[in-house]
Structure formats: C-alpha cells, structure tokens
Amino acid sequence: MLVKSAGSIDIGLEHGIPRSTARGWLRRHDSPLVVSTDVVNHDAASLQVEVLALRRKVKRLTALLRLMFVVFKLSQFSFAKTRVQDAKGKQRLLAAIDRCREQLPLQTIIRLIGLSRSRFHEWKQEHLCGLVDRSSCPRKSVHQITPKEIGVIRDMVTSDEYRHVPTAILARLAERLGKVFASASTWYRLIRIYKWRRPRLRLYPAKPKVGIRAVKPNEIWHVDTTQIRLLDGRRVYIHAIIDTFSRRVLAWNVSDTFNPAVTSSLLRDALVGSTSSTPSLMVDGGIENYNSSVDKIVEEGLLKRILTQTDISFSNSMIEAFWKAIKHQWLYLNTLNSVSTVRSLVSFYISEHNSKLPHSAFKGHTPDEMYFGTGADIPDQLNASRLAARLQRLESNRSQTCRMCEKPASLSA
C-alpha cells in the first residue's frame, strides 16, 4: 500500500521488495482485497453458508457465461464483418466494456467480443467529440460526404418530383442543378445503407383470375409446334394437339423438317374421334397454322380458328406448359441422338400422359378417363383409400413404444 500511495518503486526496493513486484503493484488499478484475522472471530457457520451461496452463484454465472459464449461463437458474429453505425449502440457497448473492466483487463474483453483495439479507441474518440455518428472520423477522411449532402440526396431520392428519373441519372441531374456532387455509386450505397424507398410503384393492368375453360371434350383445342436439337446440332420438330377439357393429346407428329402441312393432317386425324360439331382451335400466328390446308378445314366448317392474344386476350399457354413438361421431365433426361429416338421417347411420354398419369387439374383422373368419361368412381375410391391409410398410420404410430414410455409390468397389471 505504501508503494502504491507514494507512486514510486524506490520505497519497495529499500524494504527488499523485487523491482518487478513493485512495478506490478504500481500498474494495478485497484488494491487487492485483504482478509484479516478478525474474520475468525465471526460465526463460522454463517460464513460457511455465505461461502456455499457464493459458490452456487458463481456456478450459475459460469454456466450462463459458457452458454452465451457458445451461442456467440455459433452465430459467427464478428465486428470485423459488421459496421456499427448507430451512435447509441456504440455508447451502450462502450459502457458495458467499462463495467467489465472492473473485473477483466481491456485486452481480454475486446479479444472475447472480437473487437480490435484501434477500433475501440476510435469509438471512444467519436463518443468524446460529440459529432454526428459517421462511418469514419471526418477529420481523418476529409473527402467523405457531409450530413447536409446526405440530406439533399435523401430528399431527391424519396421525392415524387424525380420518381421518373433513374438513380444514376438522378446523380448527374443533382450536379447540373448544383445541389450535390457525388458519384452514382455513392447514391446507390446511401440508398442501400439507409434503406430509402423510391416512390416508383408500378401499376399493371389487372390479370385474369380464371383462364380458358371448357365444359366438355372437343370443345376447345390447342395446337402448336416446338423444336429440340439433337447431339449433332440437327433440329427435330414436334407437332401436337391437346384437348382443353381433358388435357389429352389427340394427335402428334415428330419430323426432321418443318412442314406446315403437318398441322392440317393432325387436325383431320383428331376430327375423326371428335363428337363436337365445330371445335374451337387456339393457334398462334405461325405459318403452320395459317396456310391453305388449314384454311380449307376452316372453310369446310369443321372447326373454328382463334388467334391467341389477338382474337382473344388469352395465350396458348396450355400447350406451352405441355412442351415444358415433356422436354424438362423426359426428353432432356435422355440421349437425343436421332429422330427415331426422339419419336420413340415422345410416343412413350404421351402414352403415359394420356393413360397413366393423373393430371393435377382433376380429382385423380387421367386425361383418357376425362376425355372418354370413364372412371366416375375413382374419386370415391381414392377418398376411401386415403381414409384407410390415415387410420393405418395412426394405428402404426400409436403402437410404437420405447423404454421410456413402456409401463412396468407391475403397474400394467
């Protein structure tokens, strides 16, 4: 105590105290707690109870500290990757560090939380200078943008007057108006940091909630042509006609050349099994749909041709969805090296699509069942099977036991 109060190690050296020990006494901020022999005079039982209580408290605090330390590590939080721009948040952290310094050295504290010493002292200087919180000291980074300029940028970004101006052009316009001189990247960075929202809400026309619907087979058809490339670069053309009501592929063709006359032959094949007088044919503006052969079928009154997105507002999306399914779910999964290979693959998929695969638009029916009107009892069968499977699942799960839930034989008796 005498060495610390005098502030000199000479007194310690005079009494035979080592120089390193005396210097350590001077560096310590607080004097160590000294327990005198007067404690022996106190009640030993009460001291033991107090010691046990303190030990339990220390164990709880140690367990909590270990838990928080593990959570802190697992969260992978690091001040090296995070910028704290809130001045209040910095002040709260600095105050917490000051409270911890009463028990732990500063180096240990900042190492535990992953904060560098230089950044800690920089925050201390920002806190003392009282300036508006900035990412760096304005006296050290004299080229950074000022708070006044940030306010001008905010007003222009969020103003309705400039909502038609892109952000990059708005930065140039601000220079022409003499308001603020900053690069477009600075504007984008400030918008991202402060989360400003530009008043540029786009208004779109209302989209139809319900698409094309048919109430019976052969009421509406869709026809289209798509192409795929073989391994050697050659093109293969696939033509198909789909019924809207049943999603059944009525006719299809695969060829190595684009022949517009294929559409008319497919239409006549599909009309053979049609029970409707004049099906409506949804087509796009391709040459395969507008030629003399197809025109002749239309003039004969066998079907009514409708140009999508022109005669009506709907598109030919139903058959486009079929092309996407057959390509990505089947054709592209195989080696497409010849026209015959593609033809066999298309034949297999269309057969599966029509006769085996239940469509998501129906209650378990396949396109063939919807087209020919068969399988009326399938929804009831599926509901009964679904209920039986649910009951079996409940019974199976309830019968599962383990050693934790098994009752002793004596209690079960």
Describe the structure.
With 413 residues, the protein is of the alpha/beta class. Among the domains are: 2-30, no CATH class; 50-80, no CATH class; 147-194; 220-323, Ribonuclease H-like superfamily/Ribonuclease H (Nucleotidyltransferase, domain 5), CATH 3.30.420.10. 48% of the residues lie in helices and 8% in strands. The chain has helices at residues 2-6, 10-14, 19-27, 44-74, 87-100, 106-113, 117-129, 147-157, 167-176, 184-194, 261-272, 292-299, 317-328, 339-355, 367-372, 378-398, 409-412; strands at 220-229, 235-243, 249-255, 280-283, 304-307. Strands 3-2-1-4-5 form a 5-stranded mixed β-sheet, sandwiched between helices. Helix 5 crosses helix 7 (117-129) and helix 9 (167-176) crosses helix 10. The longest helix is centred in the N-terminal third of the chain and has 31 residues, at 44-74. It starts with a helix and ends with a helix. The model has no long low-confidence stretch (mean pLDDT 84).
